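quick one before i forget lol
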Amino acid sequence: MIRIELSAPALASARFGLSPLMEIGTVLNQWQARRGARWARSALDTVVRLDLRLLAGFLEHRGYVPDFLNPLPAGYDADVQAELHAVATAAPEQVAAEVAGWARGRLRPAPRPRRVLDALERGEDRFAQQVADELDRFHADFLSPRWPAVHRRLEADVDRRARVAAREGLGAVLGGLDAATTWRDGALQVDRPFDREVRENTGLLLLPSTLAGHVGVGVDPLGVRPVHLVYPATTADHDLAGVLGSTRDALLRDLTAPRTTTELARRHHLAPSTVSYHLSRLHRAGMVTRTRSGTVVRYRRA
């Protein structure tokens, strides 16, 4: 469980933001877990077709994306060119430290990410510029044609949650970001299969994403950037995610092949108990089937 205590100043400065690069960061962060999704296949095709070697390296080696690739929007609606400039001009020491941390912090054993580390050895300034150039090309091909529709959905989500905040308070918004978040005793709790306590004094930034399958928590160990939450955007229409909730929708979409509770927990960064609860509800509704082999139970979309 991640528990984030928010001071009064942090709550007072809580705000929403829309960010094209954060949406691309969601692609890089969640591609492995959701690579069966149509957008994930399209993203990989774009990376391969345009020969974006550093982005390919980040996709190949599962883990968080270095923070400098996702500069937090200074205002509500970020300008992509300003974001790309921030990436290209990131401080060399920040680039070196975050890429090294990314290489150490991957979530599964894998060969060293030579493609990324070799590029870094040619200099941090050159590395940052190359990443910015690749992000620019990926944005132009993958996200820019979709951005008007994506932007409308993000704004609709913010408008809906602003109405919830006006009627029920900010705690209702924070506790309703997805099935894994709750607001309790003055703290935001995010259900994850590990424990962490965070005390935040500088602010809170909420970033909706049309591609996120679960809430992602960004915490700056130096305390310079505010805590930011990338969460699944929803709309008021009656699409599947709106009916089921984003977590059950993501699990259901991932069950085109049989998977165990443990596999799903790992792939979606959820506690096994949380996955088990949602699977039981989906099974009761007839939306998934389950088969047993010895002590192993596998679920599949019906």
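fyi The mean pLDDT is 87.
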